[in-house]
Amino acid sequence: MLEHINATHEIDYIMLSGDFINHFDWSYTIDEHVSTLRNISSLVRLYFPTTPTYWAIGNHEGVPVNR
């Protein structure tokens, strides 16, 4: 999908609005948390390497509960 968007649209900027982490607050780890955000970041950089990207932190991007 990202490859198609990059090939068929002229994107001026990308806004990522947060909440990429699941709602299972008690079951995910810090490593899973960091891995998810790194994967998203890598995909955006891969398909849109020169497009300005703006991140917003959602209420699920904080450190896992009780950690």
TrEMBL record:
<keyword id="KW-0325">Glycoprotein</keyword>
<dbReference type="GO" id="GO:0005764">
    <property type="term" value="C:lysosome"/>
</dbReference>
<dbReference type="GO" id="GO:0046513">
    <property type="term" value="P:ceramide biosynthetic process"/>
</dbReference>
<dbReference type="GO" id="GO:0005615">
    <property type="term" value="C:extracellular space"/>
</dbReference>
<dbReference type="Pfam" id="PF00149">
    <property type="entry name" value="Metallophos"/>
</dbReference>
<dbReference type="GO" id="GO:0061750">
    <property type="term" value="F:acid sphingomyelin phosphodiesterase activity"/>
</dbReference>
<dbReference type="InterPro" id="IPR029052">
    <property type="entry name" value="Metallo-depent_PP-like"/>
</dbReference>
<feature type="domain" description="Calcineurin-like phosphoesterase">
    <location>
        <begin position="2"/>
        <end position="61"/>
    </location>
</feature>
<dbReference type="InterPro" id="IPR004843">
    <property type="entry name" value="Calcineurin-like_PHP"/>
</dbReference>
<protein>
    <recommendedName>
        <fullName>Calcineurin-like phosphoesterase domain-containing protein</fullName>
    </recommendedName>
</protein>
<dbReference type="GO" id="GO:0016020">
    <property type="term" value="C:membrane"/>
</dbReference>
<keyword id="KW-0378">Hydrolase</keyword>
<dbReference type="GO" id="GO:0006685">
    <property type="term" value="P:sphingomyelin catabolic process"/>
</dbReference>
